[in-house]
Amino acid sequence: MTSTTAPVATTPTARTGRRGRVPWAVVLLTSLAIVGYVVATYAQAGLPIAASQGGLSRTYAERPIAIQVAFYVHIVTASLALLVGPFQFSTALRRRSLAVHRWTGRVYVLGIAVGSVAAFVMSFVSSIAFDGFFGFGSLALLWAWTTWRGYHAARNRDLPGHRAWMIRSFALTYAAVTLRAWLGVLIALQLLTAQGPVDGTRIFDTAYAVVPFLCWLPNLVVAELLIRRRGLPSYRLTPAPATDPRSAGA
Questions:
Q1: How many CA atoms are closer than 13 Å to the CA of 142, on its beta-carbon side?
Q2: pTM score, two decimals?
C-alpha cells in the first residue's frame, strides 16, 4: 500500500539557493548535450546509417516500419521533453513569466504523452529481451504516470504535489542522459579490466544489458531525496500513520 506524506515545512536560505544553481546548470547542460547529440545523429544521418555505426539504434534499424516510426516519434518527443524540462524548474522563469512556464509545461507533458507510448511500443522489440521489455516498459509507464500526476496536481492547484510529481517525472526524463552515462562507465570498466583482444560489440552488449533498470531507478531515489529535502509531499511504500481523532482537538 502506498501513501503520500504531508510536506515538511522548510526555510530555504540564500546559501541553499546558490548551491542549487550548480546542479541545475549541470542538468541543463547535460540535457542540451544529449538533445544536440540526438539531433546531429538522426536528423543528418538517419536510422540506417546511425545503426551501421553501432550503438542503440542497431536494435530498430531492421524492424518493421511501425517500430521505426515509433523510434523516430520517441526520439523527437523525448528530446523535446528533455529540452524544455530543465527550464520548468527555473524559479526565475516562473517569477518573470508564469505564462511561459505554463506553456512550456504543456509542451513537456505533450512530449511525454506521445513519447511514453512510443517508448512502450519499442520495449517489445528490445535487443535484450525480457530485461529490456520490463526495464524500458516500466520506465515508459512510470514516465507517463508521474507526468499525469504532476499535471493533475497543477490543475487542482496543488502546487506542492505538482512540484513533487514533476521532479519524479523529470528524473525519468533524465534517464536519456543517465543511460548514456552508465553505458560509458560500464564500457570503460570492461576496457580497463579486459585481457587480450577486445570485442567491441560484446562489451557494448554486456554494458547495455543492465541499463534498462539502472538508467532510471537511481534517478527516482535521488528525486525522492530532493523532494524530502525541499519539504514537498514524499512518496512512501507504507500507509501513513493513522491519526487519533481524540488527539485532533487537543
A1: 20
A2: 0.82
